[in-house]
Amino acid sequence: MLEDNLSKSIKLSIPNIRRAKLKESVKKHGCIRIIEAHNPISALIAENACGNDISTGLNVEYEGFWSSSLTDSATKGKPDIELLDIKSRLSNISDIFEVTSKPLIIDGDTGGHVEHFSFNIRALERLGVSAIIIEDKTGLKKNSLFGNEVNQLQDTIESFCIKITKGKEAQLTTDFMLIARVESLILDTGMDDALKRAFAYSQSGADGIMIHSRSSDGKEVFEFAKRYRLRFPNKILVCVPTSYNHVKFEELKTAGFNIVIYANHMLRSAYKAMEKSSQLILENGRTFEAESDLLSIKGILNLIPDNR
Predict the structure, then answer these.
(1) Which residues contact 224 (CB under 8 A, 6 or more apart)?
(2) Torsion angle, CA of 182/188/191/193, rounded to 10 degrees?
(3) What is the pLDDT of residues 221-236, one digit of tens each?
(4) Which long-range contacts (CB under 8 A, 24 or more apart) does 246-250 make?
(5) Which region, left, alpha or beta, applies to residue 130 given φ > 0 means left and ψ of -120 to 50 means alpha?
(6) What does the mean pLDDT of the chain come to?
(7) % of the chain exceeding 90 in pLDDT
(8) What does the pLDDT read at residue 108?
(9) How far is 155 from 293, CA to CA, in rounded Å?
(10) Over the stretch 284-298, which tens digit does the pLDDT of each residue have?
(11) Environment class of 258 (CB within 10 Å of its CB; exposed 0-12, middle 13-18, buried 19+)
(12) What pLDDT score does 221 carry?
């Protein structure tokens, strides 16, 4: 009976251990790499990825996963309009957690209704998710990289601050983080508006700020980081260099960022490979021509533990 109780206690502590890892990694490294994982196999690949950074020569790895609403929606063939409910997102994360050990940040879109947001925070905590990032938009959510090409509405500062406050009040653990995503640079409302919002969200209790940008040169995120750090030197600062993909990790670290998210690259790379293989098989009437681009059967068996 004592052994059973001890085993149960250990199992119950696992979400707490995972949830705490994100803060621990940031504290240890200063700035960490997070990569998108849209299902358990992509998370397993990301968990085992490592290599020597060309700039520093250091051996590096990803310190955690990003659960992207874009890639979660895309894998189900659905648009990125906050269509997937939280239970669907949580089920996918639970599957990822069954086979991995690294922490995860969830893309929380707009956070939804304030009244629902508080309950969702607790569900994420129970599962062992380390952080949620919510964006300051309202109405039907559209992907940020469309910018003003589609109709997107930014929430008022006051309304979004209430959502942050309510989310933090609902939180039951100290390890979980709520990070506010500022869309001002995406929607062309300017740097001053971005900073005004970031300052207000930080004062309302957000553990950190994610600044998003469609600019390909990356200059505006560096300016934002410099000016934000003068006011809040110790808050978590997050960026997603999808558009300014020539900027290196070490540059972002030097600028004051703590978390760099590679937000959709696992799915994008998988799509290209699947498209090529399916086409080659059709054209050649066999799989021989596609085999050189494929993981061997032995390789995929070895990737999954306990297949033997």
Answers:
(1) 185, 191, 194, 195, 198, 211
(2) -60
(3) 999 999 999 999 999 9
(4) 246/218, 247/218, 248/55, 249/31, 249/33, 249/53, 249/55, 250/53, 250/55, 250/56
(5) alpha
(6) 92
(7) 84
(8) 96
(9) 46
(10) 999 999 999 998 988
(11) buried
(12) 98
Structure tokens at 109: 């879109």
DSSP letters of 230-291?
Answer: HH-SSSEEEE-TTSSTTS-HHHHHHTT-SEEEE-SHHHHHHHHHHHHHHHHHHHHTSSGGGG
**Could you tell me the CA-to-CA distances from 294 to 42, 227, 300 in Å, in that order?**
15, 47, 10
Question: Could you give the CA distance from residue 265 to residue 66 in angstroms, rounded to a whole number?
Answer: 11
Residue 168 has pLDDT above 80, yes or no: yes
Which residues are known to be catalytic?
80
pTM > 0.85? yes
